[in-house]
Amino acid sequence: MADVRPWIHRVLFTQQYFVPIAVALFIFDSLLTFMVIRRVAYTEIDWRTYMQQIAGVLRGERNYAKLSGDTGPLVYPAGFVWAYQALWTATDEGADVRRAQYL
After folding, report:
1. For residue 101, which of 35, 24, 57 has the smallest C-alpha distance?
2. Of the candidates 60, 54, 47, 30, which has an alpha carbon nearest to the alpha carbon of residue 95?
3. Which of 29, 35, 46, 74 could form a disulfide with 53 if both were Cys (CB 3.0 to 4.6 A apart)?
4. How confident is the model at residue 76, as a pLDDT?
């Protein structure tokens, strides 16, 4: 059996295999995510609260002290708000939770 150490070194420490490994990891992660979404029951944690907070921002409120939902005030930075505004739009104002899970 040939010594595999040089090959392992190339895989781990060079860019030679970067693209195929990245593609393989992306596919594996996508399949695993799909399986989890299909097999594990959805548990509401804060999705509704996030959508309530985003609704406040979309109504024009910019004062963080006034942006809140069922589980409390908005404590995340503006980048969170921007990302969740995109989810709000893509999920019919937060109603399509399954689509949000896939995204």
Report:
1. 35
2. 47
3. 74
4. 87
Distance of CA 94 to the CA centre of its chain: 14
- C-alpha dihedral (43, 44, 50, 51), degrees to nearest 10: 110
- The secondary structure element, H or E, covering residue 35 is helix 18-39
Contact assessment for residue 53 and residue 68, using Cβ atoms and an 8 Å cutoff: yes
Measured distance CA(26)–CA(4) in Å, rounded: 25
Locate 2 and state its tokens: 């040939």
**CA–CA separation, 76 and 25 (whole Å):** 30
pLDDT digits (tens, 9 = 90+) for 30-76: 999 999 999 998 888 889 999 999 999 999 998 988 998 998 898 88
Q: Give dist(CA 1, CA 27) in Å, integer.
A: 30
